[in-house]
Amino acid sequence: FVGFFLPKRPFVDIWLITLLSPIVFMLCCLPNLPASEVPSKAKVVWEKFSSQTNFERDTYFYGTFPENFTWGVSSSAYQVEGGWDADGKGPSIWDNFSHVPGNIKNGDTGDIACDSYNKVEEDVYLLRALGVKNYRFSLSWSRIFPSGRNNSINSHGIDYYNRLIDGLVANNITPIVTLYHWDLPQALQDIGGWESSALIDLFDSFADFCFQTFGDRVKFWITFNEPQVIAWAGYGAGTLPPNVNDPGSAPYRVAHILLKAHARVYHTYDDKYRASQGGVIALCPNIDWVEPKTPSDPRDIEAADRYLQFLVGWFTHPIFKNGDYPEVMKWKVGNRSELQNLPSSRLPVFTAEERDYIRGTADVFCFNSYTSKIVTHSTTRSWPSSAITEYGNPPIYIIENGVGIKTKSDVDDNTRIFYYKTYIDEALKAYKLDGVNLRGYNAWSFMDSFEWLNGYDPRFGLHQVDFDNPNRPRTPKRSAVYYAEIIRNNGIPLPKEDEFLYGEFPKNFWWSVATAAYQVRKPRWTLKVYVDRLSIWDQFSHTPLKISNDDTGDVACDSYHKIEADVEMLKSLKVSHYRFSISWSRVLPDGTTRYINEMGLNYYERLIDALLAANIMPQVTLYHWDLPLALQNVGGWENDTIVQRFKEYAELLFQRLGDKVKFWITFNEPYNTAYSPYVVGHNLIKAHAEAWHLYNETYRAKQGGLISITINSDWAEPRNPYNQEDIDAARQYVQVQRHAVTALPAAPGFVRGGTPSLGAGDAQNPGQLPEFTESEKQRIKGTYDYFGLNHYTTVLTYKINYPAVTDRSWLNSGSIWLKVTPFGFRKLLRWIKEEYNNPPIYVTENGVSERGDLDFNDTWRMHYYRSYVNEALKAVVLDGVDLRGYTAWTLMDNFEWAVGFDEKFGFYHVNFTDPELRRHPKASARYYAQIINCNGFPDPATGPHPCLELEPEGKPCSRNPACVCISL
Description:
Blueprint: H1 20-28, H2 42-50, H3 54-58, E1 63-64, E2 70-74, H4 77-80, H5 93-98, H6 120-130, E3 134-138, H7 141-144, H8 155-170, E4 174-180, H9 186-189, H10 198-214, E5 220-225, H11 227-235, H12 250-272, H13 274-277, E6 280-284, E7 289-292, H14 298-322, H15 327-339, H16 352-358, E8 365-368, E9 372-375, E10 396-400, E11 405-406, H17 414-432, E12 438-444, E13 458-459, E14 463-465, E15 474-476, H18 478-489, E16 491-492, E17 503-504, E18 510-514, H19 517-520, H20 536-541, H21 563-573, E19 577-581, H22 584-587, H23 598-613, E20 617-623, H24 629-632, H25 642-657, E21 663-668, H26 670-673, H27 678-703, E22 706-712, E23 715-718, H28 724-739, H29 746-752, H30 760-763, H31 774-780, E24 787-790, E25 794-797, H32 822-835, E26 841-845, H33 859-877, E27 883-889, E28 908-910, E29 919-921, H34 923-934, E30 936-937
Parallel strand pairs: 2-3, 2-12, 3-4, 4-5, 5-6, 7-9, 8-10, 10-12, 18-19, 18-27, 19-20, 20-21, 21-22, 22-24, 23-25, 24-26, 26-27
Antiparallel strand pairs: 1-16, 11-13, 14-15, 17-30, 28-29
């Protein structure tokens, strides 16, 4: 309750991202309500945004603001000026407070701060370099009136502000001037401060002088910054100067005086200066958005509603609504006062004349915002909120928005960039999607500065200030470069390379969908009876706590018994190919050819025949992670005899299935198989080469197929594209996934038949990496017919051997590792073209997961495929990539390894609680079929295309409860 009134919420939790869109929507887009309605129509906002899907909420929005939108940065006098006693300036309450040992963290003071008092020209230069349209700063009352009264005018202080204002105007930067940003002259505190009604006249006298002196150039005035903080933190909790600890009464008395002082100054400007100066004037509260923990719970709604009204409505209701406090405040405080046997309410009462005088005393709506909170009825205590009502859709200016980072130096401030990237996007949504009359946005802050009780620890600045250097040099941070780009673009326009491309893939392009043996087609085996037929995944999934929810693949989707149903789904998708894997232990239970399980082979023969009958070509993976347990018991991939075992297994499949299978994959994602140790990757590479040579020398001439390996690869971008260390880390990340030995790389087969040069980390451990003999290198070299690629997402890298990170603005998925980043797909395909001399590429997996409640209208997945397939089209059409085929992951929801059935990648939902394991199509199934039917994306400008019309197939499930739901 004290915390949300502390200045800047000292270290804003960067994960508590507020949505600016709900705040500004709240201010202007609700029905006009009487002030007494409780709970208010703030619940309309909560209902609007809580009913959004995650996809609607999180999708990044591109666009620009109106032409006259004003971009700026903000600061305040005590935080940046320094010169606390220079040239006749009088002391303020913050000067005296910071000089008391123990009051400020690390003993910091604002005596010098950023020394802006002596650096006007430098600061104006930096503002001009940013490209801002305005600069919001505050006037130090005691620098202009050292005693707080107009009988002590300090010409040096006036000269300082004149030089600053003139410098801004000369550079076409609009000054936004705050008259009071917490630094009351000590002389006025000595007569009672804001508890004294005498300050109404004294503040008006100061403001009048400022209008007269600076108003010919200043056209935007703010009376008070965050008046709630002045009243509560200064006079209630007593955490800030003047440290009055009287939470029961003083904040209400102070707020009463602040509102009357604000109104007086507004009328002074309106009566004496507006006609000649033509400016605007308002006050600037802080608004942290709140959400009810449970939007459907009336108690949580009312609690969040009260919270907002005590925080925001306290000052905005009198000015923007009816000249009076919110009814819930009057009732709540009055009721508590009565229970305390007080003669009157602790909340003062405005007269009718005062209400008329206060109402409407703001030309625009300004506010500061940093974070958001979740509110429940059990946590609001006695400081809640009330009715949020329409304020007539006033022009809105966001005056402060930013993030503090506790660090000594943060020139490479990636976190701050993420913050602005997401918050400004929410402001854009508010303007574009919600119709908010948003006129301006100011970042907090222009530079690192004195952050009140926390001194110089948290850094909010776009420019770093070296406070250890007497000259206080400023250094632009990377966020300054980013913000300057936002300003230059007037928002976040869609990058040219991200524009959608209409067109078709080559006529012979392959369209496919994938599964894997263990994930979909396990029969109902038990460990005891079929121990000799188990794979390592059978054993692993039966080990307690290894798989989410203790799921296993024992039944999975039971594709072993559902060939007909699966083929019908494939036909409905209109795929030309189907990628699946062979279970090694189903065909060779002990991993060797000593015993061949004919029933297992017969299953695959029946599946392949059914596919061919449906004109669907099989793409067969020999090994998709499910090693026979019998081979693992003798060392698995660490035992070099497995190379021969794999060759024998491959030969059996070539012999029995090769006349019908024309596309073979030796290993799926060997990086995940061989992650450690290096010897595993060494053996995988040799096993792949032996299988390739076997097919090439013995079976290719007769069977005419293709054989290669498929790797998984994320794309990697440097977190800071201007930092060489980050660039090197991205390059290494890409290289490791493609051709480090642990990844069974592309390089040995595609380039030179040897292992790549080691990165810096590996070089520290020589001897771990096995060496190929010269003859082995020659045997490995060129063992590919195509480049097989699984791809899902993109990461950001920084420093070599550091974990990769992601951009918070990227759309999430049901998998923590998978961010929706279609741009990386095209870049990766182009990189493969350039790195490996444009080999034929087949994308063998690409898809997205979802978690939580099932939604057959899986917009998220349709968006993913639309975006990623379009990036593949750009790679073909614009970049000349030799992409031959695309495979979606996956046909149906299945067993997703360590996460069990929690993550759903499928076009078809499988009801795992249904003994029949029925399949039900999602909307994405029809969408993918449409892409295939059109062989890409027909241009809507040419009119409706016949390929967009898909005929329904199958029988309605309502008429046949035993059928598989394949109707689209």
